[in-house]
């Protein structure tokens, strides 16, 4: 079975009004378009060419939900700072909230399913900026030293210097999100307006935009502590369980385990459970997990070792190319025009369009362009 796959864009406020329409070659509506979901997740199941949702098609075929979700993501302002639980934490949290009688669609519900949500983002635009993980404390102190002597800045430097780095970061984040550091939020918001710190120009640019878009939000403190990653086109970063992240701007292809479990840490009007976030978050400082694909001869493989998903990129230009499959797959084009076929029958993909293959051993790609293929992770 090979079918085209389509969905309507999600209109989250942080979305770009132009990036996805330009990718798909259509006129923008003027409204933000943040994500297009290609999968069978009940939050927004994609549609097959025959009109059925992918969720209905898989159910009718006796197949379980896909373990992964593939998205186009277009940000023009910061997403919420967030982290996701590991599998054991998700299962325990889901069971506890069910036992407490919290409706699964309640605004205060955290664990909407019992799955983890590791994720990869690959830049499709020329640049994609993201905050991922916590910067080494010594580097953050150099940034803060360049912000002057406001009392809130001095307090933050002092607290970050107390104890082991991971413990100090945990204490500062907890205090900020619990409302015990309003002076720090206020002073950072003020000094960032005109800040000029050599070596941190890009960070200051991102933080200034966050202050503009989220005035007086405690997430400003958390964002200042995080690594800024600037991806060039084709580069990727991985956000594993417990790692704080917040995509900032740019267009990307995202693949993740099929879950909706999000613990937020600022820059959002949505529910924040500080105690639960602090229970699962990893506050040890470390560089963001840059993900270098491995060329296996048929394509570039983005593999983070989880069973839920595997992502490959294929640059099609020199005649038909066979791609072996082992389970269901979703093919998404980002450049050019590529035909996807099985046994001679196929579909044509242009940028921003996708196809779904079920129970096929392989696909043949032809034309000139770039496609991404998402599928379950490799058996190990």
Question: What would your notes on this structure say?
Answer:
The protein is α+β, with helices and mostly antiparallel strands. It has 3 domains: 2-130 and 231-269 and 285-291, Jelly Rolls, CATH 2.60.120; 136-217, no CATH class; 299-375, Jelly Rolls. The protein is built from 10 helices and 20 strands. The strands form 3 sheets. Strands 1, 3, 13, 14, 15, 16, 17, 18, 19 and 20 form a 10-stranded antiparallel beta sheet that branches. A hairpin with a 4-residue loop joins strand 13 (294-295) and strand 14 (300-302). Helix 4 packs antiparallel against helix 5 (151-160) and helix 5 crosses helix 7 (182-191). The model has no long low-confidence stretch (mean pLDDT 96).
| Secondary-structure element string | EHEEHEEHEEHHHHHHEEEEHEEEEEEEEE
Q: Alpha-carbon distance between the termini?
A: 26 Å
Apparent shape = globular
* Strand composition percent: 25-35%
Count of distinct strands: 20
The biggest sheet amounts to: 10 strands, antiparallel
**How many whole angstroms does the radius of gyration measure?**
21 Å
- Which blocks of ≥5 consecutive residues have pLDDT under 50? none
CATH hierarchy, class of the largest domain: Mainly Beta
The name of the CATH topology of the largest domain is Jelly Rolls
CATH architectural designation of the largest domain: Sandwich
* Helix-strand category: alpha+beta
**Residues in helix, %:** 10-25%
CATH superfamily of the largest domain: Jelly Rolls
Q: What average pLDDT do the residues reach?
A: 96
Oligomeric form: single chain
